[in-house]
Specification:
globular, 17 strands, alpha+beta, 7-stranded mixed sheet, single chain
Length: 362
């Protein structure tokens, strides 16, 4: 796995003149990442035939990297998966969206909670600009990074690595992550093209010169390039921040899951192989999922999860009082939300309301 590059320090962005939080960074392919486990359920046992694809999958030994400093795994906590986007600008990624930045960085993380019985999933997005306390972590080379307060969530991946992102999420939530799945940026485009595109409906015209997306109000079938533009779009949506963009990402995630569910992968071995090849080439997982067989087995166990019943939530956040370009977890909403996940109980409506909405309706 490529060693993440060092991201920009969290204090280098300045407030806009209007006082509205401004985020220049590109967001989120996290929406594709949830497919890393759910897409495999669509093809079921067909995937084990393609053992040659196993070599595509990269992995991280999360247990070894974190050790015993982790929350207890509760018997009623269901399954919890940290799904992360990797925005490397090397190789094929450098050609996408006229990218001019180098190195690898993470996008908005997604905690997918699958309750006992695995009939309904909840996806909780953590805004990349959230200020958190990063715990003491160990890099891949064995060096130790001290704990630090008021660290931008997005910087942890690039500065310390994926295992530290897992540890940070576990520390702030108290939720034990059963698995880690990461999907590379370029793989997002290729996977969408492999399934023949994704249909979305937008309730307003979108013309974003930054992402290059131009859509009129209504229903559109997006190819891979358009899909990347769609999930990166922020201008004309809310206040132009990453928070306003999350709604589009959630809309696309559900549309993509629905599209994959429609695919007759068992009846089309060629298509199943193509999708499996594209997906695994873009994947990095924890060691326990680092084979096609293990992914397929886990995917089959999620066969009852229906996109139409999946709930998408943004971690409740409020604008930071010191730096309006950043957000912090809103209390008591955030604690209530994480407690519900830990205990596999219903999430109260009050725990879903975020004071910072990015200029969109809450």
């Amino acid at each position: 796995m490529t060693t993440p590059a060092v991201d920009r320090p969290s204090g280098t962005h300045r407030p806009s003149r209007s006082g509205t939080p401004r985020r220049r960074r590109r967001t989120g392919r996290w929406i594709l990442l949830s497919l890393a486990v759910l897409v495999l359920a669509g093809a079921g046992t067909a995937y084990w035939l393609y053992s040659g694809i196993d070599g595509n999958i990269k992995h991280v030994d999360i247990d070894k990297a974190i050790g015993d400093d982790r929350p207890e795994k509760l018997p009623t906590s269901g399954q919890n998966i940290l799904i992360l986007g990797s925005d490397s600008r090397a190789g094929a990624n450098a050609k996408l969206d006229n990218a001019k930045v180098s190195g690898a960085r993470s996008d908005t993380a997604l905690v997918m909670h699958i309750p006992e019985g695995r009939k309904k999933a909840v996806a909780i997005s953590i805004p990349r600009d959230t200020l958190v306390t990063r715990p003491e972590c160990t890099r891949a080379n064995g060096s130790t990074v001290a704990s630090a307060k008021r660290v931008m969530f997005n910087s942890i991946y690039s500065q310390v690595g994926p295992a530290c992102v897992v540890k940070t999420v576990e520390q702030i939530s108290g939720v034990r992550m059963d698995h880690y799945v990461e999907v590379d940026f370029a793989g997002f485009k290729d996977l969408v093209d492999a399934i023949g595109g994704v249909t979305v409906t937008v309730d307003q015209d979108i013309h974003d010169t930054s992402s290059g997306l131009n859509l009129t109000k209504g229903t559109h079938k997006l190819n891979g390039t358009q899909s990347l533009q769609f999930v990166r779009t922020r201008h004309g949506i809310g206040d132009g921040s990453d928070l306003g963009r999350i709604g589009l990402q959630q809309k696309f995630m559900l549309a993509l899951l629905t599209e994959i569910q429609k695919q007759d992968l068992l009846g089309s071995p060629v298509k199943a192989y193509k999708i499996a090849d594209q997906l695994t080439a873009a994947l990095t997982t924890d060691s326990d999922l680092a084979s096609l067989t293990k992914l397929a087995e886990f995917g089959r166990s999620l066969n009852g999860v229906n996109p139409s019943t999946m709930e998408t939530i943004m971690l409740p956040v409020s604008y930071d009082k010191i730096d309006p370009n950043r957000v912090v977890a809103a209390e008591p909403q955030a604690s209530t939300l994480w407690k519900a996940v830990r205990t596999d109980s219903t999430i109260p409506e009050s725990a879903k309301k975020s004071p910072a909405t990015g200029g969109t309706s809450s």
